[in-house]
Design a protein that fits this description.
Layout: E1 4-5, E2 36-46, E3 52-56, E4 68-77, E5 86-91, E6 94-100, E7 111-117, H1 122-125, E8 129-134, E9 147-156, E10 170-174, E11 183-187, E12 192-196, E13 202-213, H2 226-232, E14 242-247, E15 250-256, E16 285-288, H3 293-296, E17 302-309, E18 312-325, E19 333-339, E20 349-352, E21 355-356, E22 362-382, E23 385-405, E24 409-428, E25 431-452, E26 458-476, E27 479-498, E28 504-520, E29 525-533, E30 536-542, E31 553-554, H4 567-570
Antiparallel strand pairs: 1-31, 2-9, 3-8, 4-7, 4-9, 5-6, 5-8, 10-18, 11-18, 12-17, 13-16, 13-18, 14-15, 14-17, 19-22, 20-22, 21-22, 22-23, 23-24, 24-25, 25-26, 26-27, 27-28, 28-29, 29-30
Amino acid sequence: MFACSAFGAIAASSPIGSTNVTVADPAVPRPSGTPCVVQLFSNVTFTDFNTRPYTYTPPAGCGTRWAKVVLEADFSVTAGRQYDRTATLWLGGVNLYFGTTQEPSSAVAPSWHVERDLTDYSALLRQAGNGQAIIGNVVNSTYTGVIAGSARLLFYPVSARTPAAVAPDVVYPLGSDPVGSTTELDNSSSQLTKAFSLPRNVERAYLDVFVQSQNADEFWYTCVPDQYAAEVQECGGGNFREAEISIDGQPAGVAPVYPWIYTGGIDPYLWRPTPGVQTLNFMPYRVDLTPFAGVLSNGVPHQVALSVAGASNYFSATATLLVYLDAHARQVSGQIERNTLVGQPPTPTIGDTLSTDAAGDITGDINTNLSRHFIIQGYADTSHGRVHTKVEQTVGFADTQGFTINATTYRQVTDQLTSADSVSQSSVGGFVTGEYRESVRYPLHLDINEQFAADGSFTLATVAHQDYAKRSEYQLFGISLYSAKVNNTVDSADTLDFDASENVTGHTGQQSTQTFAFHDSLGGCYRSDVGATSGVVTSYDSGKGCPDQQNRVYWFSHPDGSPDTGNAMLGW
């Protein structure tokens, strides 16, 4: 019954010697069969801040239920000078894709391919609607890079080997734009909020969350609490960020914020030809709101809100509410039984070991830490009895900013770890029926070392390490059905040379590596490695370490680390 897909990375199969974008990320695994294709737009250019609208019609002759739905998009930018730009795709207010663009150079016109599994958004895609692509860009005599793109949806048909996905029954955008756009959250009090009048038979609910740092918040992970900003000559506002979700003003969950680094970040040469983790294609964080199912079904409008603790001008946010309905009940009722997140504000502890000697030289660390453990539990009276759902989560944040500041050196070393360990558990009649466990880790290490010469020139050496690690497991009646782990790691280094007027005069020592690894309990395996020196791909391995040195992944798996509610397990 299980179909297996063998596939390579999104990059070219033999990219050695290439200067184009090259990543180790996997493509979305596909079931067998020829997909129906709906083109959203083709070869559209982005030269200003106007949106690019398109219309969508479901595929004809392909049914209304699918085994899998995949978004594919291809982008490029002409050689020249251009900033990295935020890119989003929308349909009926719902986000289909969120990422940033690759920066070009005078000699390289990058092109890249991204994919996203949209199977859980099938309910949205059964209806015709209006969408738009948004890539705000400036093209003039200085910034000459013209961005272009195409996007399409692939619908994989149902067969005996590839049954229809068990997807949410309703998909709701959290936002005010009926076609789609992000919302700017300027500070911790800013909210993306919407009132929903939901069906009266909600059985499960989830929220897919994107929060992207912008403007003064772009480098939030290097900032320090305000009281230290002037002393260490760094941005203020602190370096703790976390997304907060509430329902009718009551805390309902949290989402850790990934420290994405864009292709113009710190030193653009660090990210050529391989960008940072998820830079071109963000993955949402899925928050389980199922304990509130009974409350959401009571026929009263409910306010769902999203904010970013620590936001300091600003975060760009969007979210999508995914709802499963009880097909055999007109009315589901219930209530929240326990919520220990209430009364636990996200307030980190801050300390330092900074010291200043007689010459005014500064050394030492600034430490920011937070750990919260909470339980949200509720019940829903459904057609199959009273179901108790408990979401238990421990979220952690640990950050150390080390400084060495004197007449010839400004060095800042960032060591940061964001973590979240979650257990979602359902029980009926006192017996645990289903359980989903998830653990995510977002380590970040940055060593930024400026060395100043007597003539005013200086060098900026950067070493960067990013990781995205995720482990998940599904259990049914105490039996482990499926487990998986994903690791996506990027290591980069480069040194920029500046003259006394702060003009870049050259760079040396550019090198980078990316390793992407996935394993699951069914024997699925994916491993790709890419290495580059001086902006040129020098090594590429795919399948190394997997059985027969071959990438093999089941079509319903999520080797990219994208969220999943375990719906495929229900079809077993």
